[in-house]
Amino acid sequence: MDKNEETLHKLIDKAKQGNQIAFSSLLDYFWNDVYGFQLIRTKNENDAEDITIQTFSKAFDKIHSFDDSYEFKTWLITISKNLHVDLIRKRKRNILESSEGRNNDVVQKALDDAPSAEDSLITEQNLAALLGYIKKLKPHYQEVINLRYFHELSYAEIAEKLGEPINNIKVKLLRAKKLLAEVITNQK
């Protein structure tokens, strides 16, 4: 076992124990591999980035199930490939569902971009509830969610604004979304 493999095994062990720095290091180390893989498959930067983030999120959630007899990169790529397949299936299902029973109502609804008064009210109520959930997070998690989803800044722009490395922003956003999902789930 060479020095890099030994270091990698130590990082994986620390990550299995919940060490956030180890997660961040693994993300830094493998981000380009997974993102590059998805960019070739999807030929779309947004999809590749979204799937890569989901890959690391899922991998970090399931890291305790990682078997050391396999390569970590292979495990990540497999997760990523499965997420991409799921995305394709979901899109196909949505297309099929929207094309079934084509009638004027469906076409009209698709063409009508303006939300109804009821839709606007529901959106406002959902947004207010979401903002309430976000306020329950620690301030640094609130900030990255706000910058990414409400100000629609890229990871690079957020990293520059906060003076942090881009991979820290990615991990922080992953963590923030996971914590936000837990807060929302616990409220229901």
From TrEMBL:
Q: Does the keyword Calcium apply?
A: no
Using the record's annotation, list all stretches that form the RNA polymerase sigma factor 70 region 4 type domain: 129-180
Q: Which GO terms describe its biological process?
A: DNA-templated transcription initiation
- Any idea which GO molecular function terms this record carries? DNA binding; sigma factor activity
Protein family: Belongs to the sigma-70 factor family. ECF subfamily.
Q: Which NCBIfam families match?
A: sigma70-ECF
**What protein am I looking at?**
RNA polymerase sigma-70 factor, ECF subfamily
Q: Which organism is it from?
A: Arenibacter nanhaiticus
The lineage, from the top, is: Bacteria, Pseudomonadati, Bacteroidota, Flavobacteriia, Flavobacteriales
